[in-house]
Write a structure and sequence with these properties.
The protein has five helices and 47 strands. It is mainly beta. The strands form two sheets. The chain has a 27-stranded mixed β-barrel. A ten-stranded antiparallel beta barrel has the order 8-9-12-13-16-17-15-14-11-10.
């Protein structure tokens, strides 16, 4: 018998494979034949594992290493397994622990079981419990009859899993799998549940497919028991280092009873969206090596009605449901001197049964020569040209080309206290018509023609800066004067320019037909004065921005003064700021636009309230609202790291209609989140007749329950919602 005290002894032994060498560190080491006993704080190093225990025995003949009391296992700092007894067979690469306790350091998920056995990197676990909460009185636990875990993939499978909130059972599933890292992998995502008076029980169960690292697919089937069922999908891909995109599509079928009761225009709702972005497509696709930058951006949308958007999720409060959607494709090639672009725009009006009479731009061709200088930077010039193919299936069409050539002379005077410039502007527009108008306005007809003009601009500006003890004040004054020189026109422009240039004609029905392609504004002999000032604190943070702008016409004595614009952004304190932008119309002696916003952020409170008022000064009709008056507010209060509260309220003062409102709170802890929110939302729908209401006012109660790290919140979506009424 050999006994050495109190030296630190090392025992090296290996199996048939030299790479499986095991090193034991111990204070006391006894050897008796084939049995080696170690005690007094034992540490065992084996491959990437580091084990510690109170004592250990090793059988040289069988290759069994047994550890006793207070066992800890660390694998590359990833997880720990604690127990009272462990047995390792080096030759067979088998390990067992009893009882079994594992802690993943990254996710802080722990697992406790009667026994665990490992083979290579797989762990087989008998009945036990798992949770992400504090092991002492955890808020939630998941009990299971058996489990297995693979250390390489960090994927855990639980069988016959029962979810408990404290000691209350709330859910059972025969199988539950989850990952302990953020690796993309195929599996089920967090479901969404709901209950509605009109739509019945709602469930959406997302399924995520990620078989390769360059693409993934998310399927979102849903059932609304009283309304119908459908499925949405999102396919995302990355096809190169500089490009990627996604394709979304969906379909929902209404039940006959719901379709008839609500008098909907469509019983099936469907649509798609395709997005793609590539910032080097010319070199990639055509195998070139141009030094300039090329790009393509695709955003194509189509849907048969707005309910395609409404049915995407069960939470409509954060969805934009515009009645018009835009599809576009933009291509460009850019160098230091020149820019070439081509843009395709297609508009789809969801309130119309067909878009055959909707104007589209298919395509726009664009060339721009960047600002260049001559005469030691005193002369500047640039060139911009665009050609628009304004197209529709039924009705008049036009190819409209614009050319703009500004040439400027500039210099600084009085030791750069004053900057002056002169600019000559040459502008040309040509329109070539085709097609047949849907409405004939006699004696007017569409004639191919051109419009050309030249005007001059004189500008002078100065800017002064003065520093104070705690502030820096910057003030600038700029004045410009436009002088029309000459203009010439033919065809369409000669027929409509006088009529379309008069603002009072905009309310006439004829105006919409005759001036549909006329987008020119008159160049008057007019001056413009801009006063701008800034105030910075001692840390060079902007405290105040103020701009006052006034236009004065010398051609139109009836409307001598243009609208006076005042813009103010004032950060009163570090937590309180106000913003104001308003336009005053001298002719109407009224404000045409007033926008105010108040922002507060202090003591965990974030509050913002804004109001927009607009007056277009046109007669009030059934089709035209003269006024816009809209109030928007939102409030968030973070009471502590655990509790937060939020509320929103949006109201249309002109129609006296509440657009949306919500109030709720969220409780967050390390292992779980719980929130409840009451929300109201006015969402548009497409009905079969004009007499049926075209919007639905929904009332919801949303419950958010997140069991971390198994579930992760996605945006503001909630796990459970209850729709109170329509």
């Amino acid at each position: 018998m050999l006994k050495l005290l109190p030296l630190l002894l090392l025992l090296f032994f290996s199996t048939l494979n030299a790479a499986d060498k095991v090193v034991i560190y111990a204070t006391n080491l006894d050897s008796n034949g084939t049995i080696v006993e170690a005690s007094g704080g034992v540490s065992v190093a084996y491959k990437d594992y580091l084990l510690s225990a109170q004592r250990a025995t090793y059988n040289r003949q069988s290759g069994d290493l047994e550890l006793y009391e207070n066992i800890r296992v660390n694998n590359n700092g990833k997880y720990k397994i604690l127990g009272k007894y462990a047995k390792l067979n080096i030759a067979k690469k088998e390990r067992s622990f009893r009882p079994f306790y594992m802690l993943d350091n990254d996710s802080q998920v722990w697992m406790s079981a009667d026994e665990g056995a490992t083979k290579d990197q797989d762990i087989q676990i008998s009945s036990g419990v798992v949770s992400g909460c504090n092991p002492v009185d955890p808020l939630w636990t998941m009990e299971f009859s058996s489990s297995d875990y693979h250390a390489k993939t960090k994927w855990v499978n639980l069988y016959n899993a029962r979810l408990y909130i404290y000691d209350i059972p709330v859910f059972y599933t025969p199988y539950f799998g989850y990952s302990l890292d953020t690796t993309r992998r195929t599996g089920l995502l967090t479901p969404s549940l709901g209950l509605s008076d009109s739509e019945g029980f709602y469930i959406q169960q997302p399924f995520y497919i990620a078989e390769q690292n360059w693409w993934d697919l998310e399927l979102l089937p849903q059932i609304r028991t009283n309304r119908g069922s459908g499925i949405y999908q999102t396919f995302r891909f990355v096809d190169s280092k500089s490009s990627g995109g996604e394709f979304r599509a969906g379909y929902f079928k209404e039940k006959d009873a719901y379709f008839s009761k609500n008098n909907l225009q469509n019983q099936s709702h469907y649509g798609f969206n395709f997005k793609y972005d590539n910032n080097d497509f010319i070199n990639q696709w055509f195998h070139e090596n141009y030094s300039g930058q090329s790009g393509i951006y695709v955003d194509i949308n189509h849907m048969n009605d707005v309910d395609y958007i409404n049915l995407t999720t069960n939470d409509n409060t954060n969805q934009a449901t515009s009645t018009q959607i835009l599809s576009r494709v933009n291509l460009f090639y850019n160098t230091n001197k020149n820019y070439f672009g081509s843009y395709f725009k297609y508009y789809e009006d969801l309130t119309l049964p067909t878009n055959d009479e909707t104007l589209q731009k298919l395509p726009t061709l664009h060339y721009h020569h960047y600002l260049n200088t001559m005469l030691k930077d005193h002369m500047l010039y640039s060139l911009d040209a665009q050609s628009n193919n304004i197209y529709r299936k039924n009705g008049k069409k036009v190819i409209q080309t614009d050319i703009n050539l500004p040439v400027a002379l500039q210099t600084a005077l009085f030791d750069e206290y004053l900057n002056v410039s002169y600019q000559a502007n040459l502008y040309l527009q040509h329109s070539s018509f085709s097609g047949t108008p849907t409405v004939i306005a006699e004696p007017f007809s569409y004639k191919t023609g051109y419009f050309a003009r030249n005007y001059h601009t004189l500008s002078a500006s100065t800017q002064l800066t003065k520093g104070y003890e705690k502030y820096t004040h910057v003030i600038g004054l700029a004045m410009s004067y436009n002088q029309s020189s000459w203009e010439t026109k033919s065809g369409y422009y000669q027929d409509v320019s006088d009529y379309c240039s008069e603002p009072q004609n905009q309310s006439d029905a004829e105006y919409q037909t005759r001036c549909e392609f006329y987008h020119l504004s008159n160049i008057e002999n007019a001056a413009k004065v801009d006063l701008i000032q800034y105030l910075y604190d001692e840390d060079q943070h902007e405290v105040l921005f103020h701009r006052l702008s006034q236009r004065i016409s010398y051609s139109n004595s009836q409307q001598r003064y243009g609208e006076l614009e005042n813009e103010l952004d004032y950060k009163i304190t570090s937590y309180l700021s106000i913003y104001n932008n308003m336009f005053y119309n001298y002719d109407q002696n009224r404000f045409s636009k007033i926008f105010n916003k108040l922002s507060v952020s202090k003591y965990g409170v974030t509050f913002a309230a804004s109001h927009l008022f607009k007056d277009n000064f046109l007669p009030q009709t059934a089709e035209n609202e003269r006024y816009t008056s809209y109030l928007t507010t939102n409030l968030k209060y973070i009471y502590s790291s655990h509790y937060s509260y939020n509320a929103t309220y949006n109201y249309d003062l002109q129609t006296q209609e509440k657009k949306s409102a919500s109030i709720g709170f969220m409780y967050k802890k390390r292992c779980w989140d719980f929130g409840i929110k009451y929300a109201e939302n006015n969402r548009p729908v497409l009905t079969n007749t004009s007499t049926t209401k075209s919007s639905v006012y929904d009332k919801y109660v949303y419950l958010t329950i997140v069991l971390k790290p198994f579930m992760k919140p996605r945006g503001d979506s909630s796990l459970i919602s209850y729709k109170l009424a329509d």
